[in-house]
Amino acid sequence: MNNIVKIAKLFLPNEEILDVSPLGNGHINTTYLVTTNMGKYTLQQINTNIFTDVEGLMSNVEKVTHFIRKKARECGKDPEKCTLKFLSTKSGKKYAIYKDSAYRMYRYIDGVYTIEKMENPESFYHSGIAFGEFAEMLKDFDASQLVETIKNFHNTVSRFRDFEKAVENDAAGRAADVFEEIKFVKDRESFTSLFVEQLENGSLPLRVTHNDTKLNNVLMDEKTGLPVAVIDLDTVMPGSYLYDFGDAIRFGATKAAEDEKDLSIVNFEIDLFEKFAKGYLEMCGSSLTDTEIEMLPYASIMLTLECGMRFLGDYLNGDIYFKIHREGHNLDRARTQFKLVSDMEKNVDNMRAVINKILNK
Ligand code: ADP
Ligand code: GN1
Ligand code: MG
Fold this sequence. Notes:
Blueprint: H1 2-11, E1 17-22, E2 30-36, E3 40-46, H2 54-74, E4 96-98, E5 101-107, E6 112-113, H3 121-137, H4 156-169, H5 179-186, H6 194-200, E7 207-209, E8 218-221, E9 227-230, E10 237-239, H7 241-252, H8 270-284, H9 290-317, H10 329-345, H11 348-358
Antiparallel strand pairs: 1-2, 2-3, 3-5, 4-5, 6-8, 7-10, 8-9
């Protein structure tokens, strides 16, 4: 922790660091809560194996948070609380390099909590509102200002190719033991091109999207349970509303944790789907095209399948991307995703009926 104190000082030269403790449960960055004599801050080590262009990344999040603050002011919201506010170092940069690693610091938003597992359905409705509002706020953001922080992030065709390579290379010697799971993905190859083709031929529009709409990327107010801010903005880039909708459903439309080992309790729940869809569509439904609306049930399946193949691919590669906390962690995660995909495939009509009900169609 000594190094962390030194790094914190690069952003806070005039404050006394009283405490540093680990924060949150993200799979990518390493996050700390820093308490000083003047206030609280979040210090993050950026995972530069994944985000190789730190300059481009920080320029993206600066532009996006600046834009959100402006929008918040326009509609009478507290601009200091509704998004991340990054601190500068002495040299005026929004990040610091220390021993080959990149760090950034932002103001800690106090009085909030994040949800790691769906327990209260109402909070899923509220996260729908948060991500729907986020989409609506960024509707007129000029996408050409953003660099692509991770190439082909939700390109499921390229994700499938990466998966095939992981199977072929079998770097950790694990492929033979997960034959069933590999087959599950391979059986769905033709499905993986559905959105890629529609984006290419223009039947789906390109939007500015969050791209990582996991429930724990929304800060909730401790007192009211209402959403305060959407965080983890590293993957904000041109994308599709279907990515944000599908990824949120993937994580929240089940009461089971993403890494639950007992698959008998991993079930897709249509009532939870309805909660998120209602919040999301109340905020941005009028901006969606007919094709986007028609594709929402498939978005749930696509993003869940994509995440499952990323987890399984990482397991095969020897756990080099997602942080793991136990042996077989990525395999457990992949299995929950595949169980949800199977459930969702049986629920396409039900999902469609829910969407139509919400939109009064
Ligand atoms: P990762 O990319 O690793 O998921 P995040 O930016 O999502 O990184 O941060 C990880 C976790 O840290 C979040 O899920 C949240 O619980 C917590 N966290 C991050 N920023 C804040 C903040 N400003 N206020 C309160 N909690 C935060
Ligand atoms: C990662 O950073 P975090 O934990 O919010 C990942 C997402 C996955 C998610 C699965 C940059 O999200 O794409 O859907 O894990 N983020 C990145 O839980 O790869
Ligand atoms: Mg996160």
